[in-house]
Design brief:
Elements: E1 5-9, H1 13-24, E2 40-42, E3 48-52, H2 58-63, E4 69-73, H3 74-80, E5 85-102, E6 114-117, H4 120-129, E7 135-138, H5 145-148, E8 154-159, H6 163-167, E9 171-186, H7 187-192, H8 194-212
Parallel strand pairs: 1-3, 1-4, 6-7, 6-8
Antiparallel strand pairs: 2-3, 4-9, 5-8, 5-9
Bound molecules: adenosine-5'-triphosphate and 1-O-pyrophosphono-5-O-phosphono-alpha-D-ribofuranose.
Adenosine-5'-triphosphate is lined by residues 10, 12-14, 54-56, 73, 75-76, 94-96, 158, 160, 179, 181.
Length: 214
């Protein structure tokens, strides 16, 4: 009997967009992961289970072997950094853009802008690459609030429809990166379980390609 493979996912859009791809591969969760309080959910395949973790924790679980595979946004993977993961497949789901945003007209000229974000590494890297000085302020969410209360001049956040920015009187200003979710694989798992990990990776990649072409 082979050991159970584990795929880490996060509740919300990653789960919502990944379940149809799993379904196209013939994989169904034993119960609705969005509704369940369980953190480990079996599937119709004896050798595969799902792990439900915070979106920003997916790379950590996969890197440290808590999961063999995972699905995470490119934003989360780049912010996590490190070399402990294979990133073999762009699933093309949960698409959005990492952007600099702020009030109309941007930051006031003549001084170093204060930039609120949960993506501190990506923001620091972006401003440094541009040769621009910036003070980065770490937040864990609702970055749109920071300019409204005068705590920051700009934010670095994910933008899809732009509705959240607009609702808070902000505008998208500069695109940093296009974002989509990737399948990531633990390096040791790929070595110890090349057939099963390889087959699941190929099947999900094919399902993702088929979904994008419809
Ligand atoms: P955490 O719980 O770790 O704070 P989170 O609340 O940001 O994470 P989600 O909002 O579910 O988690 O986002 C998961 C991923 O989905 C993000 O890392 C990003 O790649 C993508 N994403 C985030 N916002 C959007 C959006 N508005 N439209 C499309 N994709 C998005
Ligand atoms: C994400 C992101 C933005 C919003 C952008 O937040 O942090 O706030 O989506 O999407 P839009 O351009 O379509 O409005 P999310 O909805 O995931 O809430 P969160 O702050 O709990 O992550």
């Amino acid at each position: 009997m082979s050991r159970t493979l584990t795929l880490a996912l996060s509740k919300g859009r990653i789960l919502e967009d990944t379940l149809p791809l799993l379904s196209a591969c013939g994989i169904e969760p034993a119960e609705d992961p969005d509704a369940s309080r369980k953190l480990i959910i079996g599937t119709n395949r004896d050798d595969l289970q799902l792990l439900v973790v915070r979106a920003s924790d997916v790379p950590t679980y996969v890197e440290h072997g808590g999961a063999d595979l995972g699905v995470a946004g490119r934003d989360v993977l780049l912010e996590h950094g490190g070399t402990g993961l294979y990133d073999p497949v762009d699933l093309g789901i949960a698409r959005c853009r990492l952007m600099v945003a702020g009030p109309k007209g941007g930051a006031p000229a003549g001084r170093r802008p204060r930039v609120a974000t949960k993506f501190v590494h990506l923001a620091r890297q972006y401003f440094a690459q541009q040769g621009r000085q910036a003070e980065i302020i770490k937040l864990y969410g609702s970055m749109e609030l920071a300019p409204l209360v005068g705590m920051a001049d700009l934010i670095v956040d994910l933008v899809d429809t732009g509705n959240t920015l607009r609702a808070n009187g902000l505008e998208p200003l500069e695109e940093i990166l296009p974002i989509s979710a990737r399948l990531v694989v633990n390096k040791a798992s790929l070595k110890t379980e090349p057939d099963r990990v390889g087959a699941l990776t190929r099947d999900l990649a094919a399902a993702a390609r088929a979904a994008q072409s419809t």
